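Hi again,

Forgot to attach this to my earlier email, sorry! This is the prediction with adenosine-5'-diphosphate bound. I've pasted everything inline since the attachment limit keeps bouncing my files.
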Amino acid sequence: MYSLERTGETGVRRADLPVHQDGMSAEEMKHALVHTGLLLRESRSANKRLRELNAAKSQSLSLSSHELRTPLAVIKSFAEILVNEEDSLDREKSLQFMRIIDQECDRLGALLDGVLKLQRIEAGTACAEGGTVDPAAIAEHLRIAFRPAAKEKGIELTFDLPAGLPVFDADQEQMIMALSNFMTNALDYNPSGTRVSVSAEVRDRSIRFSVSDDGTGIDAEHHSFLFDRFYRVRNKAAALTRGTGLGLSIVKAVAERHGGRTFMESSPGLGSTFSIEVPVSSKDGAFNRDVERALSDAREMGHPLGLVFIKLEGSAPGSGAAGNGPSRLTWMEQCVETVVRGTDAVLQYRDDALVVLLRTNGPGTRRCMERIQEAIEHRRGGFVLDEGAYSLWFGTAIYPDSACDAHELVSVAEEGRAKWQPVYLAGTAGR
Ligand code: ADP
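Structure tokens for the complex follow:
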């Protein structure tokens, strides 16, 4: 039987849902219930995402308009001189001013281009819904696109991709755009005679692409700002390159859309390595994005974030309760949904665990963990377990006490399960 508890923000009670319809077996009803619950959650999270996008759009618009105003002001003032002082300007001066206007128009165009790219990435559903990418194809694309420029500049370009790298879920165009930005920088900011190498490796369930150079390197004081919009290092190399300061922020946006991350290491005089890492599976990417979003909400609103990691181990791992119905994980998710609040989120983690995100501190997280345990033990939400013996593992992590980074928080919660004794459960045959 189903409990009468609220299912989150919507306030829909399970009792409001049809409990019986002609022609629907009890099993089908349970499946319908699970799917209804999941649909409600999806629509809640879509709404939330729309609100976030709106806020991000306004913020990025105001930042961009500020940056776009600079070249516009230069164009306006030189155009005014040309119009108002036409008689007193000699041909050489006029030409010089026109050249400045021409350059600033190019700069304005490049800035607009970059801002539009960023907006498309941020607003899109680029998390590879449907798209897959072959790392070898990316490397080939970069080789063809950048070999002539490297040759012209006298920079040696090498590719170091091990055989057997997996095809991964991503938007190919965006991955190429991100890596091309790393490549352009490596060629632009390093002198002739240096070397640039592209490499890729699998790390856990992610793939990491890196572009390394042995060139000028970047002073440590700039490192934490490099991926910020419009940030440029004011040095000789940058003065010679007409950049916008948007290249690395575009890479960051691509990484985030895929639930991935960016990294950089650099030492002045020794060179730099810039990397983008994205999950091989878009399911992992979606999970990472959800945790990242909850964390950025917590940071912005100044509240803690509790994570509860739940893993059920035992017979027939991951199998459907009825063989072909919702997986055991989906049943467990539905069960956990009966105890969390509308502001909390229950996420499937990899193939065999759940992570619950709670707007609460350590003691609140602990209490919720106990309620979840009770709900699972009492098989709330129609949760069923095939016959067998199971152990239920828990782990917790709290932002900001345990970690401040989304990946680290999840690792702390997952590894934290060693702290708690598992709860033993017995499955029952026949439902
Ligand atoms: P842009 O290249 O348009 O200035 P980016 O966001 O791509 O903007 O890069 C930001 C800054 O990082 C650059 O201005 C440059 O100073 C520095 N940078 C990026 N890549 C490298 C590199 N491989 N070597 C040295 N400096 C780099």
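Residues 1-21, 317-324 have pLDDT under 50 and may be disordered. The radius of gyration is 27 Å.

That should be everything now.

G.
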